[in-house]
Amino acid sequence: MNLNPAHWHLIVNHLPITGSLIAVLILLYGILRKNEGVIKAAYWLFALMAVFAVVATQTGEGAERFILDAKLADEAIIERHVEASNIAEWAMIVVGVTALAALFINRLKTLRVMPVIVFILALIAAGLMAWAGLLGGEIMHKEIRSDNNVVLPR
User: Left (φ > 0), alpha (ψ -120 to 50) or beta: where does 22 sit?
Assistant: First the structure.
């Protein structure tokens, strides 16, 4: 089986989307339970999701070229996704770096509000990730586009 660049992007792109949502829930649980171990686990997950966000963007560049060369989708709809995913990628990088900083700060026991700061940033980043994912899905799934005229069977 020979995987093209679009395959690789599809394999990777769901990780930062679903992973960031899961990490947000884990962090919220840790905050509510005041469980430092759970909070630290969420921080590490955010750092990992930042890495996956970068990988998803990198594989997306090859997928974009492949889809455009194969004339499988319109460039305008792809560019909407690319712009949204670039913003989401940077937001997740900010969360990942902030989470790593929070791990260090928590060692010093100097700033107790860090879990809440990371949670707020992560919630924003997860929303941006979900939005980028929705726009990515619209590239090949006309039925989910907001501008479609598809009539669904009853």
Answer: alpha
Q: Under a CB-based contact definition with an 8 Å cutoff, are residues 121 and 95 in contact?
A: yes
pTM for the full predicted model: 0.88
**At 124, which amino acid appears?**
I
At 144, which amino acid appears?
Answer: I
Nearest to 138 by CA among 67, 49, 46, 52: 67
Q: Mind listing the pLDDT tens digit for each residue in 44-94?
A: 999 999 999 999 999 999 999 989 988 888 899 999 999 999 999 999 999
Q: Is 153 left (phi over 0), alpha (psi -120 to 50) or beta?
A: beta
Residue 123 has a CB neighbour count (10 Å cut-off) of 16
Which of 47, 27, 50 lies closest to 37 in space, CA to CA?
A: 27
